[in-house]
Amino acid sequence: MPKRPGTLQTLLRTAKREGWVQWIRSEADEHALLNGCRFSDKRAQFVVKFFETFLRHSTGEWAGKPFTLLDWQRDDLVMPLFGWLREDGTRRFRRGYCEVAKKNGKSAICSGIALVLLVADGEPRAEVCSAAADRDQAGLVFDESARMVHASPALEARCEVIPSRKRILYKPSWSTLQALSADVPTKEGLNLSGLIFDELHAQKYRNLYDTLRYAGRARRQPLMLGITTAGVDRKSICYEQRQYGERILDGSIHDDAFFVLIYAADEKKDDWKDPATWRKANPSMGVTIKEEDIASDCREAQLEPAKENSFKRYTLNLWTEQVTRWMPAETWTKPGNCRVVPIEDLRGHECWAGLDLASKVDIAALCLCFRRPADDVPLDGGQLTIGEDGSLELPENPVEAYLFYWWFWAPEEGWRQREAKKGGDFGRWAKDGFITLTPGNVIDYGFIRKQINELGKDFSLQEIGFDPWNATQIATELGEDDGFQMVEMRQGYKTMSEPMKKLMALALEEQCIHGGNPIMKWMVSNVAARTDANENIAPDKEKSGDRIDGVVAAILALGRAMVAKSGTSVYEDRGIQTV
Predict the structure, then answer these.
(1) Quick one: average pLDDT of 522-532?
(2) Which domains does the chain have, with CATH numbers?
(3) What is the distance between the alpha carbons of residues 26 and 28, in angstroms, rounded to a whole number?
(4) How far is the C-alpha of 148 from the C-alpha of 62, rounded, in Å?
(5) Alpha carbon separation from 568 to 78, 395, 428, 464, 465 (Å, rounded)
(6) Helices within 373-444 (DSSP H only)
(7) CA separation for the pair 283, 539 (Å, rounded)
(8) Could you tell me the strand order of the sheet in which 258-262 lies?
(9) For residues 553 and 491, what is the distance between their CA atoms, to the nearest angstrom?
(10) Is 107 in a helix, a strand, or coil?
């Protein structure tokens, strides 16, 4: 059992008398106090003085100026981290986790702490590493530390920077600071006294973290500090550390050696559009990041819901999934989008189709997409205005509307069972003609092929985009036997991102005219979008709330219409093409 030098109240009175009771901020600090830990204002102020005296900013508007710590950097990070001591005078904290939104000066504070551990930690032959998931990220902290060394005459006189090896040598104690990443071949044999792990959320595998964690066991007071922005992988080593830290903060576990600092919005309680929420996750707001820039990003995220997750993660420091709900119901059902234009009015006109045959035991969907000048689509329904020769004259710089029509099929027996279990409106939709229930437990693709051939007689069907999953046979029949131009479109970012973004833009502008199809209203509400690092998007069927086949079919159809508009969709031969 740890030594308990006195009651908590006695220790608090002593801390108040000695002038450091303000540093006892949590149940974790009280627990450490009972175990003999104390706060040394002298030790904490020494580190703050080191920053202000020896370190200089190297980039931006503060380049060349002394590194004066911001309030949160001084009071919430540096002073608690270095000021709390154990009974033997060594540092209380041996591991730490700091999480804060992007653009709050993480790289600069990481670099400064690395130099403190290199130069001013009193460790003979110190070994300090800046680590990250990849070499480039690991180099960011090192590069900033190297620039700080060059900007300080006192440090430059005592340090040797070796860029080719990503190493800084502090000659008075033969201590080293080096960059290290997961792709460095060997990390065994390290005897670390300090480790700064930058952007821990990007560390996909735990091997590097675990190896480095135990590399300081022989040191007197090793410090391993992870500083990161929120990520997306809740099975990662980073999220594991976050959860551990949260349990320390709420008092459910005790670990005197683990430092925790998290700046983040409360996803359940906070309004993500409120500036007060932004401040909770951005302690440097007004200094390294401007409120008007956050406000601009927030407006963009509201207009483009696919960007909402990125805003919440990078600006509000919220752990998000890689998928998010794609389109709000109020966007899809705007009055302009729900205009009714009878498809008979488009007889003979060009259109493009999308065909999604996800499963024979579920829903199959076909969508036809027509391009029309927006001025020719009435606001209150009714007939399109057609010229005497049957053509439409485009105005200069026309705003285009896109008209969408769907056909759905499902196996009758399967959907009766589904409706009995989950409820729904499938019986009514079938009665109203919005979906065709085919006999038995599986869809008869013959119904679909027949429908497409009938549509081909009434409209100038240019291309049919289709997902090859479960569709190879019918695509071959439609292409080789029936003479339709079939275009294979796999559901990845390459083919889906641009038309999916376009569909959102059309809905926002009330130029996505769908007539209020009730099945589509349901399916749109189900769609989850996944994103990649370049903000490309695609539907995620696995994470979506329920069926989204009609949305996929619309994206495929719109994608072919967009390609045709660019002038790159002219085919002389019929059959199957791949994009």
Answers:
(1) 85
(2) 40-262 (3.40.50.300), 275-320 (no CATH), 330-383+397-527+541-578 (3.30.420.240)
(3) 5
(4) 12
(5) 59, 23, 42, 15, 15
(6) 412-422, 426-431
(7) 35
(8) 159-162, 167-170, 175-181, 127-132, 194-198, 223-228, 95-99, 258-262
(9) 11
(10) helix
pLDDT tier, 384 (very low <50, low <70, confident <90, very high otherwise): very low
What distance in Å separates the CA atoms of residue 56 and residue 93, rounded to the nearest whole number? 26
Q: Is 436 exposed, middle or buried (0-12, 13-18, 19+ CB in 10 A)?
A: middle
pLDDT over 70 for what percent of the chain?
87
Check: CB of residue 180 under 8 Å from CB of residue 205.
no
Give the torsion sign (CA, 503, 509, 513, 518). positive
Distance CA 372, CA 208 (A): 57
Q: How far is CA 68 from each of CA 61, 121, 155, 284, rounded to the nearest angstrom? A: 14, 19, 17, 13
pLDDT of amino acid 394: 43
* Bigger pLDDT: 220 vs 418: 220
Number of H helices and E strands in the chain, helices first, is 21, 21
Residue 408 DSSP class: E
Q: One-letter amino acid identity for 355?
A: L
DSSP calls for 299-339: HHHHHSGGGHHHHHHHTT-----SEEE-S-HHHHT-TTTT-
Residue length of the chain: 579
Cross-strand bridge partners of residue 38 = 85
Read off the pTM. 0.65
DSSP state for residue 483 in the 8-state scheme: -
How does pLDDT run across 102-151, given as a tens digit for each residue?
999 988 999 999 999 999 999 999 999 998 888 788 888 899 999 999 99
CA distances, 521 to each of 139, 162, 232, 481 (Å): 49, 61, 29, 35
The token duo for 24 is 């006892």
Q: How far apart are CA 271 and CA 208, in angstroms?
A: 37
CA distances from 351 to 161, 346, 407, 501, 560 (A): 65, 9, 15, 20, 9
Confidence check: pLDDT of 383 > 50: no
Q: What pLDDT, in 10s, does the model give residues 77-95?
A: 999 999 999 999 999 999 9
3-state secondary structure 537-559: EEECCCCCCCCCHHHHHHHHHHH
Higher-pLDDT residue of 317, 64: 317
Q: What is the mean pLDDT of residues 431-447?
A: 86
Which tokens belong to 149? Answer: 């060394």
Q: In terms of Cα–Cα distance, which of 390, 365, 510, 515 is closest to 460?
A: 390
Q: Taking the C-alpha atoms of 53, 59, 60 and 62 in order, what is their torsion angle to the nearest 10 degrees? A: 10
Taking the C-alpha atoms of residue 410 and residue 364, their distance in angstroms, rounded to an integer, is 6
